[in-house]
């Protein structure tokens, strides 16, 4: 299976704030992202993957360009004299040139691009932008164009208009164009699009390179008055002579409206638009009404994808499964048919996404790309995602590194019975969890390796799902060396992540993370720092544990820990310490938490620091024994698996459910409000073994949160959260 989830994990969260959620009236808000990069920057290829995924998700609401420094594509003085103050490191990116709350610089790391792109996309555009009278004279190579700003809401300040000249697929020779690639053969990036590429990529095609800010970095002033009037067009005329080495057919023009101020947080982009210089840009939009499937082992399932032409000209579009952003197990096969569709101007067409599974359980994320490959146009990719998961699973193991399966999933399966047959490994990303909420499982294990750090602790959507599990009396296990610190004290922390740890669990971190590695001056790992891990006396998990963790002699053969967090338990917390470290009982390394039937265990380290299998198995066996003791619930012996689409809904939704017990002849559907009252009950619905479906209708119910309870004729039940909108 393709195990790379870094870019995907961050991006899937946004898929179902669907592309095309732009305002039906007024100008489209297009977010402008400037990636600061260089051919010498080996990590910048990962930034390119993140941007490509974002552009595919939001083809009409995001414009992304690359601003180079220190290579053959640097614009003299632009980075050194102006934009350099935006950059804290490489790659970083400015999103609408906003200085976001909690950030030290306008340029932020790639792990946050998705979050802030979505935040800016949700803003209403106060100004529309049109790029007209575009002309290119091949003999003089002079470009002229007009950029017109029309405000729909009055605005004031130093407002400016700009035209940015961008060239795609830039190539060159020598070190100033050859792209460094730190992903090459890096074991932490197996499955990454750049994993199998060389460490230095010659002939690399640099995407969306900024060639000129025709109005200067801060834009042309004096066009828009100090108070811009609504409905009044303000037009700036630009000209630029294209150097002979630049390829006119690869040039796009980006028009922007900017606001200028002297403060670091006052230089912002209000909106943007783009056109091709010699070719039209063809954009499409991909959407899947029912993206989540339950395809049983050895079966076939399908769903429908709709492609919309966002252009005013007809287009032929090619559809394909994009392997590099898909997660499909070996032995499973995904296809999309037809592979080519004809789209009328502003029209739509449909295709079927089909998944064939083998006899093994698992999950799939299927990325479907749509793009016009006509050489006479600039075709932009749009991407839709379909999902599938083997039905009937009860124990989910979410992980951000394949080794986490060995540490946590295998000890769970070793308990036998349903722990073995109904446990499933799932990707730790909020998009997948949006399709298959964690609260539908009886238990969830969240394991975060250092290479995936922050994928849980800084993700409020995932933490909200964990809270939902606890609300439903479910069982949760968390392990990760930096998740508490990143969720509470880092610049990536939010009020929601802080609240989860400090208020819900009642813990905080006592200081900065503790480094458990020795490194050289250039950052190379040269050794580990062992530390004592001890259990709280007489505790059901920790009693008698006394182990020297991270005692590693062979860095190439043995896993180890990078950092650990030290916790303290807040007064009044429902958490109880079970482990501590560094022979200091105040440095809590593990807690267990209980509220009613809900239970949680959290470790601020992962099992990579424990090489003794007996000690590792003892800790995990005690953890799972405590979690699952007295773990009775109406769902535990259920033979049902459910999926409701759409959810939330306003008028009607379809519930898909799997019946595995042949004795179940019918089921009954009940909607229950948050006070426990049945507000809607169906007649008994005949069912058969296998996949079934039923339509739930909103018969005048008040918008809000409900539970859907499905009861089989054999008395077994399953529940899932439901949200009804207006």
How would you summarize this macromolecular structure in one to three sentences?
This protein is mainly beta and 726 residues long. The protein has 11 helices and 49 strands.
Description of the structure:
- This protein has 726 residues and is mainly beta.
- The protein has four domains: 1-13 and 27-123 and 171-204, Glutaredoxin (3-Layer(aba) Sandwich), CATH 3.40.30; 282-389, Immunoglobulin-like, CATH 2.60.40.2310; 395-628, 3-Layer(aba) Sandwich (Rossmann fold), CATH 3.40.50.880; 640-724, Immunoglobulin-like (Sandwich).
- Helices cover 14% and strands 39% of the residues.
- The protein contains eleven helices and 49 strands.
- A hairpin with a 2-residue loop joins strand 40 and strand 41 (598-603).
- The radius of gyration is 27 Å and the shape is globular.
- Residues 1-24 and 631-640 have low confidence and may be disordered.
């Amino acid at each position: 299976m393709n195990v790379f989830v870094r870019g995907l994990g961050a991006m899937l969260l946004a898929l179902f704030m669907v592309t095309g959620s732009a305002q039906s009236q007024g100008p489209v808000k297009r977010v402008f992202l400037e990636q600061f990069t260089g051919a010498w920057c080996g990590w910048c290829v990962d930034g390119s993957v993140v941007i490509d995924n974002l552009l595919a998700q939001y083809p009409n609401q995001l414009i992304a360009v690359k601003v180079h420094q220190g290579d053959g594509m640097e614009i003299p003085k632009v980075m050194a004299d102006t934009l350099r103050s935006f950059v804290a490191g490489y790659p970083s990116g400015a999103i609408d040139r906003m200085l976001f709350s909690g950030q030290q610089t306008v340029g932020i790391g790639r792990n946050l691009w998705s979050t802030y792109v979505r935040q800016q996309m949700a803003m209403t555009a106060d100004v529309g932008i049109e790029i007209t009278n575009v002309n290119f004279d091949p003999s003089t190579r002079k470009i002229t164009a007009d950029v017109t700003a029309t405000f729909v809401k009055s605005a004031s300040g130093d407002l400016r208009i700009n035209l940015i000249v961008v060239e795609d697929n830039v190539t060159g020779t020598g070190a100033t164009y050859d792209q460094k690639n730190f992903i090459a053969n890096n074991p932490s990036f197996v499955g990454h699009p750049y994993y199998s590429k060389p460490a230095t990529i010659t002939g690399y095609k640099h995407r969306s390179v900024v060639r000129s800010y025709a109005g200067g970095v801060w834009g042309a002033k004096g066009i828009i008055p100090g108070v811009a009037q609504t409905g009044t067009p303000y037009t700036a005329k630009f000209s630029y002579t294209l150097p002979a080495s630049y390829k006119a057919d690869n040039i796009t023009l980006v028009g922007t409206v900017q606001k200028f101020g002297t403060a670091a947080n006052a230089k912002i982009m209000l909106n943007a638009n783009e056109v091709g210089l010699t070719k039209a840009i063809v954009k499409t939009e991909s959407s899947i009404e029912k993206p989540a499937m339950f395809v049983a082992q050895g079966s076939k399932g399908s769903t429908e994808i709709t492609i919309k032409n966002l252009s005013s000209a007809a287009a032929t579009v090619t559809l394909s499964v994009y392997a590099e952003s898909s997660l499909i197990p070996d032995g499973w096969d995904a296809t999309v048919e037809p592979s080519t569709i004809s789209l009328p101007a502003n029209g739509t067409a449909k295709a079927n996404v089909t998944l064939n599974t083998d006899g093994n359980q698992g999950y799939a994320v299927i990325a479907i790309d749509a793009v016009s490959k006509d050489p006479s146009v600039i075709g932009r990719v749009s991407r839709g995602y379909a999902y599938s998961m083997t039905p009937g699973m009860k124990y989910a193991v979410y992980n951000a590194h394949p080794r986490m399966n060995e540490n946590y999933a295998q000890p769970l399966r070793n308990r036998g019975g349903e722990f073995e047959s109904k446990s499933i490994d799932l990707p730790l990303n909020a998009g997948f969890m949006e399709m298959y909420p964690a609260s539908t499982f009886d238990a969830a294990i969240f394991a975060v390796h250092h290479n995936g750090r922050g994928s849980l602790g800084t993700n409020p959507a995932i933490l909200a799902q964990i809270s939902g599990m606890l609300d439903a009396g479910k069982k949760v296990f968390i392990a990760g060396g930096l998740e508490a610190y990143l969720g509470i004290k880092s610049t990536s922390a939010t009020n929601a992540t802080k609240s989860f740890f400090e208020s819900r669990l009642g813990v905080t971190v006592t200081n900065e993370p503790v480094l458990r590695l020795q490194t050289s001056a250039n950052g190379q790992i040269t050794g580990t720092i062992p530390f004592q891990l001890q259990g709280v006396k007489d505790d059901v998990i920790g009693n008698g544990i006394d182990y020297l963790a991270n005692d590693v002699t062979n860095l190439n053969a043995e896993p180890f820990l990078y950092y650990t967090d030290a916790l303290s338990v807040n007064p009044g917390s429902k958490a109880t310490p079970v482990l501590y470290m560094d022979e200091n009982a105040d440095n809590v390394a593990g807690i267990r938490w209980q509220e009613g039937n809900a239970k949680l265990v959290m470790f601020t380290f992962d099992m990579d620091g424990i090489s003794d299998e007996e000690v590792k198995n003892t800790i995990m066996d005690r953890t799972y024994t405590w979690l699952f003791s007295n773990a009775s619930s109406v769902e535990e012996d259920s033979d049902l698996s459910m999926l409701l689409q759409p959810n939330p809904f306003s008028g009607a939704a379809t519930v898909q459910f799997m019946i595995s017990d042949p004795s179940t002849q019918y089921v009954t559907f009940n909607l229950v409000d948050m006070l426990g009252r049945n507000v809607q009950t169906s007649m008994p619905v005949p069912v058969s073994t296998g996949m079934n479906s039923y339509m739930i209708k909103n018969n005048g119910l008040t918008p809000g949160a409900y539970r859907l309870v499905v009861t089989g004729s054999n008395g077994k039940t399953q529940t899932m959260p439901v949200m009804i909108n207006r």
